Amino acid sequence: MINVTKSYLPDLEEYTNYLKGIWERVYLTNDGPLLRDLEAQMKEFLGVKHLKFCTNGTIVLQMALKALDITKEVITTPFSYVATTNALLWEGCTPVFADIRPDDFCLDAAKIEPLITENTQAIMATHVYGNACRIEEIQAVAEKYNLKVIYDAAHTFGASYNGRSILSYGDISTCSFHATKVFHTVEGGCIITDDDEIAQKLHFYRSFGHRNDDYYSIGINAKNSEFHAAMGLCVLPKVPNLIAARKQVFSYYDTRLDFSQADGRKIRRPTLTPGVDYNYAYYPVVFESEEVLLRVVDALKAQDIVPRRYFYPSLNTLPFSVGHQPCPISEDVALRVLCLPMYPDLEEVDVERIAMIVNEAVAVVSIE
């Protein structure tokens, strides 16, 4: 079976060497030495000032909202993983959905300003599939209306924009280190800021708001363990090579999928934002209709190949969200977008087979 993603695992001996140190120290969690080492290495790798390694990519979104005192309306994207909206709802905020750009599927800065009210406090945007939003445009709107900017940058580790890590932008940026990501710690995430005061808040938020017997603020349990940090320390040095391998798989797809418009065969990919050095986190394709997508999915699954409708559905249509706020572009794209299998050691012959199945399924629908 070929799944949409496959986790990278380092050499087992390399990982167990870290485990031996954990056994010797009997220090398993709570801001341990491996965690601190990983944080330091990640800060250097990304070129950021403050970074806190936490338990996952969702809790860091919640911490971001809390640290910035966001309690009211947040303008956000409908085209993201559900965690983006869940974090807002969980923290008692009101998500206000602005539609996406039709080319890169990121939050459309031009759609933000008409939605701003006296209750708007922040913008929460997602760098979709690891591709940067129009950062300057979003920042200009935020500065005009004195809004905070939080980036859900779950997909962007190793990607840069104008020579800087995409994670370095915004008041706060968050990332996921789930097992399927470009860089992973099995489970995990991080929260990043340049602001010293916010960083201090986040430090205490992560650990119940206290240090030893001194209590400084409210807090939550967002600590991660030495075991997860050990995995991160093994994987981090491999990230450049993993991205290079992903780039090669990406190119295999590019040369084998039929992007021509002949005979009604319509497959396209989202465009990259100018200035982005991509990390090849995903390989999304968009079909002419949901009917074509479903035909492709069935054809792939018949050959034990599992793609993913990522992102689906459009978050503004969730039954537990705050009413339906129309976002026609997102609603349309969410019905037609599919992520094909993408991981560093996906063989060229397998990509060729996947592409052939996709091309044939699209051609069958077009002929019908």
Automatic annotation (TrEMBL):
The keyword Transferase applies. The keyword Cell inner membrane does not apply. GO terms for molecular function: transaminase activity. InterPro entries: DegT/StrS_aminotransferase (IPR000653), PyrdxlP-dep_Trfase (IPR015424), PyrdxlP-dep_Trfase_major (IPR015421). Transmembrane segments: none annotated. Keywords: Aminotransferase, Pyridoxal phosphate, Transferase. It holds the Pfam family DegT_DnrJ_EryC1. Belongs to the DegT/DnrJ/EryC1 family. This is DegT/DnrJ/EryC1/StrS family aminotransferase. It comes from Spirosoma soli.
